[in-house]
Model the fold of this input.
Amino acid sequence: MRDERSPARLIVADDHALVRGGFRAMLASEPDLQIVGEAENGRRAVELCRSLEPDLVLMDVRMPQMDGLQATRVIKAEHPATAVLMVTTHASDDYLFEAIKAGASGYVLKEATKQQLVDSIRVTLRGEPSINQELAIQLLRRLAREAHESANSPPAKRLPELCEPLTPREIEILRLLARGLKNRQIAEHLVISPGTVKVHVQHIIAKLGVSDRTQAAVRAIELGILPPA
Done:
């Protein structure tokens, strides 16, 4: 878990130098965000993640040598705690579904204002989805349907079991989290404090080896911890 007292370390991956420069200019005045590397293609983004271990990658979709989705899959497999925020000119449900499956936390539009970009990055770094609640739930339901449909098919690559299993309380919170509830709503539902929920969510994310709440729900569905319903 990163030290929140230090600036979050970012990598910008885009094949256009002008776009990378624009992101750098927009984030230059934010003391809690620091761009530590730039990549002109997906392969270079993977290499930088291996050497720099950033907290978050702003990942363009279409790049030479390796596109954003493929690079995201590699980065999340090697560095699960690194968050990936996809950068796109338009957001379709099909694309977002594939991005979430690849391991992305969400997306930000290329024409976003500085405040929208900064807000999306900070939300993602807090482990929260940078997409709205309704869309996140739709994507998780679609993933659950796919998991259900493939249940009777020949198994693909088996995911490793958890080193430390989730407790009954953590599974209870995970179910509510997957329904799109925020910490405060979960706390009210379970009659516990929001601070307690926050600690449980941090433990869930750590045990599942992911970077955020959305990917925690995705991994739980893949592992069969959450029923595909």
In short: The domain at 153-223 is CATH 1.10.10.10 (Arc Repressor Mutant, subunit A). The longest helix spans residues 133-149. The beta strands are 8-13, 33-39, 56-60, 83-88, 106-109.
